[in-house]
Amino acid sequence: MPTVRLFIPCLVDNVYPEMGFAMLKILKHFGYTVEYNSEQTCCGQPAFNAGHLKEAKAVANHCLSVFAEDDSPIISPSGSCTAMIRNYYKELLDDESVEVEKLCANIYEFSEFMIKNNHHIELQKIIEADAGIRIHNSCHSARELGLKTEIYSCMNQPCDTEEPVCCGFGGLFSVKFPDIAESMGKARMDHLLQGDKKTIISNDPGCIMHLRQIITHDKLDYKILHLCEYLAEKI
Fold first, then answer.
1. Average of pLDDT values for 104-115?
2. C-alpha radius of gyration, the chain, whole number
3. Which domains does the chain carry?
4. From CA 72, how far away is CA 112, in angstroms rounded?
5. Are 206 and 172 in contact (CB under 8 A)?
6. Which of 92, 99, 168, 179 has its CA 20 to 30 A from that of 30?
7. Per-residue pLDDT tens for 159-186?
8. Strand, coil or helix: 136
9. Between 196 and 75, whose confidence is greater?
């Protein structure tokens, strides 16, 4: 069986482990041998975005040492972590070595990996289109990775014709500008839940955390799931 490795984001490791276990279940369902190196930590994005480049570089070098061992694909349930590694490690590390090139080439956001390997075809046979669902595609997935249709294909849902809209999380943005972030999140929820929509599916733990906070604070009768959680329930 082919082997894949997991990159588990900080939020999944510390707050939403169920998302990681859901991804594991799906990958095993498709016949993969799944490996997890417990030495992995953060991708370095929080420090990088805050301008702490020395600290971000140290974290990135550690990540490189953990994943440089072989060529098997690395799968992450977060577009933002995937984008950080793929798009910024060469700049951050000032390194275009074979090891860095290999890491950047081998990491995939979950839905991206599903589509690349045609697993969405089986998923679409299992999952019926659900009119009660709306999809929130994260900014990093859509804009940094160019993944604008993958989550829809995995869900067997028609693609949204509108450009993805930010939920207001933005990592450190929501810490520095909480009032703006909350306003953006509420506007996003109002848009997503027009009509009879009751469930939101997203592909990034940060977006999910932010929108879940709004649901809890405003006592809304809706739920938000990670793509992996939703798919794991169906297979």
1. 96
2. 17
3. 3-114 (no CATH), 122-234 (3.40.50)
4. 15
5. no
6. 99
7. 876 777 887 677 777 677 878 878 887 8
8. strand
9. 75
Mean pLDDT of the chain: 89
Tokens of 42: 């953060």
Query: Which tokens go with 100?
Result: 């860095």
Nearest-angstrom CA–CA distance, 135 and 80 = 17
In the chain, the amino acid numbered 84 is M
**End-to-end CA gap in the chain:** 19
- The angle at the Cα of 79, spanning 76 to 80, to the nearest 5 degrees, equals 110
Name every residue whose Cβ is closer than 8 Å to that of residue 125 and which is 6 or more positions away in sequence. Answer: none
Strand-strand pairing, 33-35 and 74-76: unpaired
Strand partners, 201: 135, 225
Does pTM surpass 0.85? yes
